[in-house]
Amino acid sequence: MIFKAVSDGRPYPDHGHVSPRDWAEVPPRQVRLDELVTTKTTLDLEALLAEDSTFFGDLFPHVVQWQDTLYLEDGLHRAVRTALHQRTILHARVLVIDG
Length: 99
What we know:
By secondary structure, this protein is α/β, with parallel strands linked by helices. The protein has one domain: Alpha-Beta Complex (Conserved hypothetical protein from pyrococcus furiosus pfu- 392566-001, ParB domain), CATH 3.90.1530.10. The chain has helices at about 20-25, 45-50, 75-85; strands at about 5, 30, 35-40, 60-65, 70-75, 90-95. It has a six-stranded mixed sheet with strand order 1-3-5-4-6-2. It is globular, with a radius of gyration of 13 Å. The protein starts with a strand and ends with a strand.
């Protein structure tokens, strides 16, 4: 299994990080793929195969840590691409929410 679990939706409260500038304040760190719970059940194949998929966005996936669980909020295509390259770790911005 690539991820810890596949989920549909965000179970955590709104965190207010919506713009790239908001997320840029969160430093990236290494995260194991098998510790992530996705917040989307579908993957846009065009995003996965696009060579410039990060051209207009953040280079790092966005992860929210809530109640000791890591939720992959944005960057599912990057995480799957990492797995396809047989890597188990990716660098992501991890926002910790107390709750």
